[in-house]
């Protein structure tokens, strides 16, 4: 059977060579291709149902070798409302891209399988000589950082030296401090990644040194569970005796990123 109608409105060309109903439009205007009961599926996604439920099923979007194939998600027809979310395959680069909140690319999978997420929280802050001189005894001192090497998603506050988790998740946090002038008279020197839920520690007893520590490193890392708006910072503490003479030197780093 073939249906053909030429005109301003209506069918301009449909050819049917199937031996059964290929397309069903029910009384609620749900469309089934390969199924006669699209209303049987989840109501929030039953307006178009493709497949028969047997063997492999699928849908193909066919575009040019230098063009894009894409699905748009809209909540209106004006401006960015017409493309609030986009799933796009870029044939020129052989890359799959994902967009949210309008035309903002949030994730890309390139032709080699590399995944990049330009808004995923990730930061690296640096401090050096003169940034934290004469760290006090018997007090927890928040280490000051003066340079952001990068701060993807702007979650590290350089004025407070605090990282704030933008969403609930698992965060990899890393501390690497180069310190100098540690007093052997101090009972212990402790450095930690101090976060809302828990902390990761580095600790040393300078009594084992035969002289004040001219150069020594304090490093620790940890996978941290953080809730949205939880915070993390680097805190150094020296106990009981000794002189307030220890400093941070080049190079000291605090870094982290959202893992999952």
Summarize the helices and strands and which ones pair or pack.
Blueprint: E1 2-3, E2 14-15, E3 23-25, E4 31-33, E5 48-50, E6 68-73, E7 85-90, E8 95-100, E9 104-109, E10 115-116, E11 122-127, E12 141-142, E13 147-152, E14 156-157, E15 162-164, E16 169-180, E17 189-195, E18 199-204, E19 216-226, E20 231-238, E21 247-248, E22 252-258
Parallel strand pairs: 4-5
Antiparallel strand pairs: 1-2, 3-4, 6-7, 7-8, 8-9, 9-10, 11-13, 11-22, 12-20, 14-15, 15-20, 16-19, 16-21, 16-22, 17-18, 17-20
Structure write-up:
The structure is a single chain. The protein is mostly beta strands and about 260 residues long. It folds into three domains: about 1-50, no CATH class; about 70-115; about 120-260, Sandwich (Jelly Rolls), CATH 2.60.120.40. The chain is about 0% helix and about 45% strand. It contains no helices and 22 strands. The strands form five sheets. Strands 11, 13, 16, 19, 21 and 22 form a six-stranded antiparallel beta sheet that branches.
């Amino acid at each position: 059977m073939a249906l053909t109608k030429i005109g301003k409105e209506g069918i301009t060309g449909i050819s049917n060579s199937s031996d059964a109903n290929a397309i069903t439009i029910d009384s609620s205007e749900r469309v089934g291709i390969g199924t006669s009961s699209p209303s049987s599926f989840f109501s929030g996604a039953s307006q178009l149902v493709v497949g028969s439920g047997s063997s492999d099923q699928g849908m193909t979007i066919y575009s040019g070798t230098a063009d894009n194939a894409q699905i748009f998600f809209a909540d209106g027809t004006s401006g960015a409302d017409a493309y609030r979310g986009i799933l796009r395959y870029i044939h020129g680069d052989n890359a799959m891209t994902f967009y949210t909140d309008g035309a903002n690319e949030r994730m890309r999978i390139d032709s080699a399988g590399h995944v990049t997420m330009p808004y995923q929280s990730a930061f690296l802050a640096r401090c050096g000589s003169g940034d934290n001189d004469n760290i006090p005894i018997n007090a927890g001192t928040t280490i000051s950082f003066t340079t952001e090497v990068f701060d993807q998603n702007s979650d590290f506050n350089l004025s407070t030296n605090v990282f704030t988790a933008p969403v609930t998740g698992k965060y990899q946090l890393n501390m690497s401090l180069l310190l100098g002038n540690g007093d052997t008279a101090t009972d212990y020197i402790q450095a930690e990644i101090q976060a809302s839920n828990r902390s990761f520690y580095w600790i040393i007893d300078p009594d084992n040194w035969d002289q004040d520590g001219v150069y020594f490193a304090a490093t620790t890392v940890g996978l941290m569970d953080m809730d949205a708006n939880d915070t993390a910072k680097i805190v150094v503490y020296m106990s009981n005796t000794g002189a307030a003479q220890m400093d941070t030197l080049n190079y000291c780093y605090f870094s982290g990123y959202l893992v999952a």
